[in-house]
Amino acid sequence: MPQVNIQTPNEQGLSHNKYSKFDVDTKGAILNNSRTNVQTQQGGWVQGNPYLARGEAKVILNEVNSSDPSVLKGYVEVAGKKADVIIANPSGIHCDGCGVINSDRTTLTTGKPQIQHGNLENFVVQKGKVSVSGKGLDNSRVDYTEIIAQETQINAGVWSKKEMKVVTGKNTVKRTGKPEDLQIIHTNQATTQETKPQVAIDVGQLGECMPIKFI
């Protein structure tokens, strides 16, 4: 099972991890946020992460720089201390049986993360689609789930423990430590020469699903 020893968090608890590819197969993947050996639900015991001598992460940012969308077909599990999990790929994210374990807040976005003074401040969305199909998105153990993209296509069940928010369009979306404060602070208007998506949100084939809050 793939295991990532996440990067050393900064003073704000942000661990910034960069990838040229971020896919998860049906076996799942581990984000190691433990200083000591710890047992996981998916991968058994894992060794402590040597990069965490100063402390564990509060937010694990997974930033993908690729021309291809990320394909998530299994669960991403945080080993050790709970942390917010963010997967950011401007080329898109496709979820078919994906989910996150041991996290209170998860974000799937096609926005470019903006970090200021060590804090993750905004996502700048210029393109990209987050799609959910097949076995859906199971975040039933995650309190808050956020999908932030130019387009979303939800053709399967989606679950989050307390709340799920979807933000679509070319926007700059502000993120704070409080999920309820998620908001659009700037709309990145398309020019007349750009091709706009016909449908920003497509929920035509929704399966069994929890209520979604569209922003």
Automatic annotation (TrEMBL):
Under the heading InterPro entries, the entry gives: FhaB/CdiA-like_TPS, Pectin_lyas_fold, Pectin_lyase_fold/virulence
Q: Which SUPFAM superfamilies does the record associate with it?
A: Pectin lyase-like
Record-linked Pfam families = TPS
Ranges where the Filamentous haemagglutinin FhaB/tRNA nuclease CdiA-like TPS domain occurs: 2-118
Protein name as catalogued: Protein PfhB1
